[in-house]
TrEMBL record:
UniProt KW Cell membrane keyword: yes
Localisation per UniProt entry: Cell membrane
Name this polypeptide is given: Amino acid permease
PANTHER family named in the record: D-SERINE_D-ALANINE_GLYCINE TRANSPORTER (PTHR43495:SF2), GABA PERMEASE (PTHR43495)
């Protein structure tokens, strides 16, 4: 495959993939649930994600020619597990992209109320397909600028917060101050609110593993991947924690609405009238970025899953173009994502939301498999081979244990809310069904 991704591309792919509508639109709900303790939840989840990324990085550097991290899951955990993980990850990203295509259409209606959702979705998919089909660097450049827009919006909020706190600015609900963080209690709803916030916190990190799809197309992966993995989780924690600190220093957490964007609320409270339009542009960019990432990821995953296929369609999807791109797989996955327009008409919204929730919950399974595969990889290395590793997982094996226990803890948290419980059950049914299907298919062959 064509190694056209530079360091800045890979860093912003992972960074942009995790900073999206969960922060710009959904942070209000998380703040209302956990209050200032949400910051602690992000720090704990960030540590687990850092260890996850270090485990992934060590696997990627053991064979930089692997198309995706699914290759390592298959190698160390077995072909059946690899099959389930690969197709689950593919369906997860297609489902997420479908939701984002629909969201992009809704965001455009902010300015053009009569514009049909499918027009925006179709236009977006055509443009992103063309960008993904030119060169891998064209995709990287597109994602770089999408991510920059989101990063600039967050930095502006953080800078605004610092300035307002420094001058003790009077807001509609008081004064901007660090003391707003402890206005009442750090755990206003007790430990239950703090624990329940982990569901939204963890799922806001979905996409961080995308670096695992870039190794075979990255220039000088031995140098770039370690740097990106060390930098990206830290930056994501800083952006999330920094923006949440800014929001709750400007407005006490009690006054941040759970049903609207806290970014819009804060900027409008400061007298910035076009705040809603600005944030709408940012979340439109976030939706386009997520779709762009999904097309890249699903194209590579479909190519990886069909490389050994013997049927006619599989052979076509498992081929590279003369530019070193899986163009056929990219086109097929783009068409699948495009079906969201039809599904919006045929399938009731509640069903589609349930499918999206199941897909998102499945990321816990994918992340856990990455860590378990890493543990198996390290256990089979000799002490001499281990001493030669240039990018070792810190605190191994305790870091792997911590990450796995953290994933189990989040899964337990999902049991205590009806919506997440149903999604968790749906995820288990999907995974078991897929495993049984592969078992039956293997025996029949």
């Amino acid at each position: 495959m064509n190694r056209g991704l530079k360091s800045r591309h890979v860093q912003l792919i992972a960074l942009g993939g995790t900073i999206g509508t969960g922060l710009f639109l959904g942070a209000g709900k998380s703040i209302h649930l956990a209050g200032p303790s949400l910051i602690l939840a992000y720090l704990i989840a960030g540590i687990a994600c850092f260890f996850l990324m270090r485990a992934l990085g060590e696997l990627l550097l053991s064979n930089t020619r692997s198309v995706s991290f699914i290759d390592f899951i298959e190698k160390y955990l077995g072909p059946k597990t690899g099959f389930v993980a690969g197709w689950t990850y593919l369906v997860c990203w297609i489902t997420i992209a479908m939701a984002e295509v629909t969201a992009a259409g809704l965001y455009m209606q902010f300015w053009y109320p009569k514009l049909p959702i499918w027009v925006t979705g179709l236009f977006l998919l055509v443009i992103l397909f063309l960008m993904n089909s030119i060169t891998v660097s064209a995709f990287g450049e597109t994602e770089f600028w999408f991510a920059i827009i989101k990063v600039v919006a967050i930095l502006l909020l953080i800078l605004t917060g610092v300035v307002l706190v420094a001058i003790h600015y009077k807001t509609p609900v008081g004064y901007a101050s660090v003391s707003n963080l402890t206005n009442g209690s750090f755990f206003p709803h007790g430990l239950s609110g703090f624990f329940l916030s982990f569901q939204m916190v963890v799922f806001s990190f979905v996409g961080i593993e995308m670096i695992g799809m870039t190794a075979s197309e990255t220039k000088d992966p031995e140098k770039i991947i370690p740097k990106c993995i060390n930098d990206v989780p830290v930056r994501i924690i800083l952006f999330y924690v920094g923006s949440l600190l800014a929001l709750m220093c400007i407005f006490p957490w009690q006054y941040i609405s759970p049903s609207s964007s806290p970014f819009v609320q804060v900027f409008q409270g400061l007298g910035i009238r076009p705040a809603a339009a600005i944030i709408n542009f940012v979340v439109l960019t976030a939706a386009a970025s997520s779709c762009n990432s999904a097309i890249f990821t699903t194209g590579r995953m479909l190519y990886s899953l069909t490389q050994k296929s013997e049927n006619k369609l599989g052979k076509k999807l498992g081929k590279l173009s003369h530019r070193g791109l899986p163009t056929n797989a990219i086109f097929f996955s783009t068409v699948m994502i495009g079906l969201s327009v039809i599904l919006d008409i045929i399938v009731p919204s509640g069903v589609f939301e349930f499918i999206s929730s199941v897909a998102t919950t499945c990321f816990l399974f994918i992340w856990s498999l990455i860590v378990v595969a890493h543990y198996r990889y390290r256990k089979q290395l000799s002490s001499k081979a281990t001493s030669k590793l240039t990018f070792k997982m810190p605190l191994f094996p305790f870091s792997d244990f911590f990450t796995i226990f953290f994933m189990i803890f989040v899964a337990i948290v999902l049991l205590f809310q009806t919506q997440t419980l149903i999604a968790l059950i749906g995820s288990v049914v999907w995974l078991i069904g897929l495993y049984l299907f592969e078992t039956y298919r293997t025996r029949a062959a």
